[in-house]
Design goal:
This protein is an alpha+beta fold. It contains 4 helices and 7 strands. The chain starts with a strand and ends with a helix.
């Protein structure tokens, strides 16, 4: 397994990319620039902000409000980091599990559709049947009156007694 990687360091203060060598250890990254002392980043304090997608460079950040960052072009860096770490680095992406997401996405989507369809077909009618006897009659009357007012406002209703009688005969 490769333990030394090449990348770039960004100090969070300037836009300058400094070439670095990154050494993977069991509990931290050792980062060496060309003209400074080595830096140590414990795995537990590193955040991954890029590199979860295939072909995307890996970017890891460290520190407070103004973060330092490293960028590595090779996505195999994450695989080597996962293998080298003796501590838990589950918060960092593992490219070896990328296919697992795809294999679980389709069955999970189908299960979600089945649950929603089941609720629509059986759950809502069952809930309505259980709740309907408990709805007060006054609520039902107000709901009917508001629906009638919305569908047929008073000004647009038929008031001609001859036509109303004809409609009543048809309904009878």
């Amino acid at each position: 397994m490769q333990r030394l990687w090449q990348g770039f360091y960004l100090d969070g203060q300037t836009a300058t990319r400094h070439p670095i060598t990154i050494q993977l250890t069991g509990t931290f990254l050792r980062i060496q620039t060309l003209n400074s002392h080595p830096m140590v980043w414990p795995y537990s304090q590193i955040r991954q902000t890029q590199g979860s997608y295939e072909g995307e460079p890996v970017r890891l950040e460290y520190g407070g409000p103004i973060s330092q960052a490293i960028a590595v072009q090779d996505t195999e860096f994450l695989v080597a980091l996962q293998e080298a770490a003796s501590t838990a680095v589950g918060h960092l992406h593992d490219p070896r599990r990328r296919g697992l997401r795809i294999r679980w996405a389709l069955p999970a989507s189908l299960a979600l559709v089945a649950v929603v369809a089941g609720l629509y077909v059986w759950g809502i009618p069952a809930l309505a049947g259980a709740l309907a006897p408990h709805v007060p009659l006054s609520w039902e009357e107000r709901l009917g009156d508001s629906a009638l007012e919305h569908v047929a406002p008073v000004g647009l209703r038929c008031t001609d007694p001859v036509r109303l009688a004809a409609i009543e005969r048809i309904l009878a």
